């Protein structure tokens, strides 16, 4: 073991990606140090992260002043700022991408959340971002809506890396995994190489506990309190069991023999929302091979300080299997919770996406003609 618990996660074949991006992190050397010293091997972004970066602080003042002198809309300016940050991060991670032969070194960029229920528009937006950034270690984030999964299938078949995001249920994850296999088979049938395309499935964890715990607190049943804080980790463990079963099937093994990469599960929403729980609860419990944990800077720092690495992802499977029925007996259906979380997750991305444009418009107006 090393003095840095983050570095030890590699011993369990788990990758650490940073769930943050800001021009300041890129410019002051912070991201470079996280890559070199803490084993960070990827970056994930979303509209909430970009809103915080652009609206708060002064990292983008010079870029916005320059934009004010060009004939561009707020939407075009916001798009350009995000692409510039993602390109800079991808360039910093290119050495990781090369060293790991494409296993790691990715930066994720989300399509507009307004397109989450439009397959064709999602595909066009992903194609545009992929072409304009022109980097093999880019991943396009596509929400795992009913309309998003066909987009994932088409993009992977075209050779565009996809981060399938906003997964809250084992059933929807299984559909995303199926779409990935379908896409790889279509790509092979078209005579295209499989090793050059990659995907992760982003399973959001802490938000599940937030929603389920609130329902448990409200139901008043004597046994409800004992079930608090268990649902998210149970769902993640069941999703991982599905991943392992797929990996053992002849269908996947045939694709792997042709060079296909597994669609790794990525644990998202790993910051703890409940003060009574450990600040590294979702990092500690979900360490396992062929997975990614994506951490906001505060959670990454906390784990570096007091993490205790051990492979815990396959522990307590009997509890994970039993929990959905126990919750259902209390009137809490995990699939219904997942549907609510998907809708809320999309709103949480649409609202900051729109606020970015309003902020830029206000800055341009203040700058004058």
Query: SSE order, as H and E?
Result: HEHHEHHHEHEHEHEHHHEHEHHH
Number of strands: 8
The tally of helices reads 16
N→C terminal distance? 59 Å
- Major sheet description: 8 strands, parallel, barrel
The overall pLDDT average reads: 95
What is the assigned CATH homologous superfamily?
Aldolase class I
Q: Which strand order do you get reading across the main beta sheet? A: 1-2-3-4-5-6-7-8
Morphology call: globular
* CATH arch. level architecture: Alpha-Beta Barrel
- Spans of at least 5 consecutive residues whose pLDDT stays below 50 are none
Radius of gyration: 20 Å
CATH topology: TIM Barrel
Summarize the amount of helix as a percent range: 55-70%
Number of domains: 1
CATH top level class name: Alpha Beta
Sheet/helix structural class: alpha/beta
Q: Beta fraction of the residues?
A: 5-15%
Structure notes:
The chain is an alpha/beta fold. The chain has one domain (5-367): TIM Barrel (Alpha-Beta Barrel), CATH 3.20.20. It is 56% helix and 11% strand. It has helices at residues 5-8, 23-27, 30-38, 47-55, 61-68, 74-99, 119-133, 148-158, 170-189, 206-219, 231-248, 250-257, 281-284, 297-306, 317-329, 334-367; strands at residues 14-18, 40-43, 106-110, 138-143, 162-167, 199-204, 264-268, 291-295. Strands 1-2-3-4-5-6-7-8 form an eight-stranded parallel β-barrel, surrounded by nine helices. Strand 7 (264-268), helix 13 (281-284) and strand 8 (291-295) form a beta-alpha-beta unit. The model has no long low-confidence stretch (mean pLDDT 95).
């Amino acid at each position: 073991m090393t003095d840095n618990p983050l570095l030890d996660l590699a011993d369990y074949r788990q990758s650490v990606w940073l769930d943050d991006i800001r021009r300041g992190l890129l410019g002051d050397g912070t991201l470079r140090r996280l890559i070199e010293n803490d084993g960070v091997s990827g970056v994930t972004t979303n509209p909430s992260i970009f809103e915080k970066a652009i609206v708060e602080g002064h990292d983008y003042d010079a870029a916005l002043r320059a934009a004010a002198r060009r004939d561009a809309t707020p939407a075009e300016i916001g798009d350009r700022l995000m692409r510039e940050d993602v390109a800079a991060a991808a360039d910093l991670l290119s050495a990781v991408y090369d060293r790991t032969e494409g296993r790691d070194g990715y930066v994720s960029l989300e399509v507009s959340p307004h397109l989450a229920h439009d397959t064709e528009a999602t595909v066009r937006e992903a194609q545009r971002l992929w072409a304009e950034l022109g980097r093999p270690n880019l991943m396009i984030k596509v929400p795992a809506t009913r309309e998003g999964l066909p987009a994932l299938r088409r993009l992977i078949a075209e050779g565009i890396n996809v981060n399938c995001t906003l997964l809250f249920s084992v059933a929807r994850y299984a559909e995303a995994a199926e779409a990935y296999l379908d896409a790889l088979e279509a790509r092979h049938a078209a005579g295209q190489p499989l090793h050059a395309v990659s995907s992760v499935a982003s399973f959001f964890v802490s938000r599940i506990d937030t929603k389920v715990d609130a329902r448990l607190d409200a139901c008043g049943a004597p046994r409800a309190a004992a079930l608090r804080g268990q649902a998210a980790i149970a769902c993640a463990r069941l999703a991982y069991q599905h991943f392992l079963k797929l990996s053992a099937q002849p269908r996947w093994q045939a694709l792997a023999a042709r060079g296909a990469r597994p669609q790794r599960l990525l644990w998202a929403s790993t910051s703890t929302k409940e003060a009574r729980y450990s600040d590294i609860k979702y990092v500690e419990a979900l360490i396992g091979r062929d997975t990614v944990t994506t951490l906001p800077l505060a959670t990454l720092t906390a784990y570096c300080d007091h993490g205790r690495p051990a492979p815990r992802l396959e522990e307590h499977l009997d509890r994970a299997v039993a929990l959905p029925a126990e919750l259902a007996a209390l009137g809490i259906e995990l699939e219904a919770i997942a549907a609510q979380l998907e809708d809320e997750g999309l709103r949480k991305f649409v609202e900051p996406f729109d606020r970015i444009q309003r902020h830029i418009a206000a800055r341009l107006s203040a700058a004058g003609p």
